[in-house]
Design goal:
Blueprint (H helix, E strand, L loop, with lengths): L6 E4 L7 H11 L6 E7 L2 H12 L3 E7 L3 E7 L1
Parallel strand pairs: 1-2
Antiparallel strand pairs: 2-4, 3-4
């Protein structure tokens, strides 16, 4: 299933916690239930961002493995 995202942010190559700070800033511009597409690195960035998003009450809808990076779609 494909989702209609409202905004997209690329934080590949951006280290933690700066990547999550940028994601939070992008989320602040969205309305409740809007979708945000995030491109990020594999490894610890993926796990820590996923965990932090859930802790902040956002819903992870989809994760795609793009090889050396990932695409996530989350619902605010």
């Amino acid at each position: 299933m494909e989702y209609s995202v409202k905004e997209s942010i690329d934080v590949k190559g951006v280290s933690c916690p700066v990547n999550f700070a940028r994601i939070k800033a992008a989320l602040a511009l969205l309305e409740k239930d809007d979708l945000l597409e995030i491109f990020l690195d594999e490894g610890s960035a993926l796990t820590s961002v996923s965990r932090s998003l859930k802790e902040h009450g956002h819903r992870l809808l989809k994760v795609n493995n793009l090889g050396t990076s990932y695409r996530m779609v989350i619902k605010k």
